[in-house]
Amino acid sequence: MLSLGVVPAPGVAGGIANGPQQQTAGLSFNVTVDACDDYWNVVPTTSTTARLTTTDPYSTPAQIDKNLTGAGGLPQGTTVYAVILVSRGNWSITAQDINGPMNQFVLANVPVAAATANRLQILAPGQTAVYGKSPYTSQDGGKDTTATAPQVAGVPFTVTVNACD
Asked: Is CATH 1.10.3470.10 what the domain over 7-113 is classified as, yes or no?
């Protein structure tokens, strides 16, 4: 499996060289999946269904299946997925053969950085920030709950203000 910064290395343990480059939250990037033999050579005659998933709980889409047979199949043993990771942190992307014997492959530690801040978030007592959580066009996004803890009139309390993307 290849993404920006990762290059194929047939004949080398693991089949790849270099690690994935940092991605920006909310921006699409391509992940290339190759059907390979035991020595990481691309096999152009593969026929199966490949599934791509991520560990980012808010990625879009969360799962992508591609039927790799016939005209829509795996051209020259390779297919490309468009992935959008939306939560900052390090995430894994997994490709697996859901119909057959091929081993799954995990591209671990794909770094995702926050995009440029374009809004402010207010967290009242009882609320916690949750990176990448929708809705993205509402003040309710990016937090674990819209409910707040009750406050007493005339008694100071603390709110948190975050600059968010």
From this structure: no
